[in-house]
Design goal:
The chain is an alpha+beta fold. Helix content is about 65%, strand content about 10%. It has 2 domains: about 10-35 and about 130-310, Multidrug efflux transporter AcrB transmembrane fold (Up-down Bundle); about 45-125, ACT domain (Alpha-Beta Plaits), CATH 3.30.70.260. It contains 12 helices and 6 strands.
Length: about 350
């Protein structure tokens, strides 16, 4: 496959604008709408109704739960086309078997037109949700520390920082999309988010490993400084990164669409959804965020700025300060027999070859 010639580094402002728009949208969703945390995080009681009347609405279920004494009620319908086939109602924490819980159960069954066997109740205390949140944050912190140390030792510290920026980029956009669309964040979502960080990191390390491998040719045509080096390395791995990501997206997409929507395996939906969004965002960050940011940072070094100035001067046809001056007619003639007129000592003379050649001519 022919190596493309995309100007990744030269279009840094364009990639920065795209990332900025996505990040601002994500921050807006988080600040204005917030995350829809599942019951495992906030604690509470969940009432799942497996069979409801087709014309049941979420508002009717919410009003019924509130009339039964529940607070912080969130009602969601499960539909088949335009008809309701099930529902999930989440409320504040109520002790199992309490009068308040029985009152809410009776009110929901009456509105939904369901039987007692169609309703199941799950209770999760707030302490368990706090424990899940703390463990998720601890796992993320350990992951970031290990990644920073490994990339710094294996490649370069600046590459490690660029990889962390790409990871934060993917994490923020993924979480922001959950807030914008209203997807529920469950423990499976957290597992999926931690998994997509690995996918994004893999693509970034592939790019930086190629940059490190090509750094031995720094200074050659097409790689005269780090900006050209990073750009050529990105073009060499762009098809590999895209093909790898698409190969990962296909089974995840099948799991999300076929498994969750067609076969009804809704327990896998949260995991597959986080993976699908994160891998898609990771394709962009590994090629248009991590590599260009590292190039921009590396080009701020004085030695790289000097190399770029020389390359720009050569491209413009300007003389360089350190170039040797060509002899001109104004220079004085060299006197015969002077040290300047003598031929330079060559390797042949050092080895005695030059003297032998002279003897043969005699």
């Amino acid at each position: 496959m022919k190596t493309p010639t995309v100007d990744f580094v030269g279009n840094i402002p364009r990639w920065a604008v795209i990332s900025a728009v996505l990040i601002l949208l994500s921050l807006g969703g988080l600040l204005l709408r917030g995350l829809d945390l599942s019951i495992e995080f906030v604690g509470g009681t969940s009432f799942t109704i497996s069979d409801v009347e087709p014309d049941t609405t979420s508002g009717e279920l919410r009003d019924a739960a509130e009339q039964g004494g529940a607070e912080d009620v969130i009602a969601q319908l499960q539909t088949d086309g335009d008809q309701a086939v099930g529902a999930v109602v989440r409320t504040d924490a109520m002790q199992p078997g309490s009068e308040e819980e029985r009152a809410v159960r009776d009110a929901l069954l009456q509105v939904a037109g369901a039987d007692e066997g169609d309703l199941s109740t799950d209770f999760v205390g707030p302490a368990w949700g706090e424990q899940i949140t703390r463990q998720a944050l601890e796992a993320l912190l350990v992951f970031l520390v290990v990644v920073t140390v490994y990339i710094s030792l294996r490649l370069e510290f600046k590459m490690a920082i660029a990889a962390l920026i790409a990871l934060a980029h993917d994490l923020l956009i993924t979480v922001g999309l959950y807030a914008l669309v209203g997807f529920t964040v469950s423990p499976a979502t957290v597992i999926g988010v931690l998994t997509i960080l690995g996918y994004s990191l893999y693509d970034t390390v592939v790019v930086f490993d190629r940059v490190k491998e090509n750094s031995i040719s720094l200074g050659e045509p097409g790689r005269r400084h780090y900006a050209e080096l990073v750009n050529s390395s990105l073009n060499e791995v762009v098809w590999r990164s895209i093909n790898t990501s698409i190969t990962s997206l296909l089974p995840v997409g099948a799991l999300l669409l076929v498994g969750a929507q067609v076969l009804g395996a809704t327990t896998l939906q949260d995991l597959a959804l986080a993976l699908f969004i994160g891998i898609g965002v990771g394709i962009f960050s590994s090629l248009f965020v991590a590599g260009p940011f590292f190039s921009w940072w590396r080009m701020r070094d004085p030695d790289q700025q000097r190399l770029k100035a020389k390359a720009d001067a050569r491209d413009a046809g300007e003389p360089l300060e350190d170039d040797e001056e060509a002899p001109t007619a104004e220079q004085p003639a060299v006197a015969a027999g002077s040290p300047e007129a003598r031929a330079p000592v060559t390797t042949e003379y050092v080895r005695g070859e030059g003297k032998r050649k002279k003897r043969r001519k005699r």
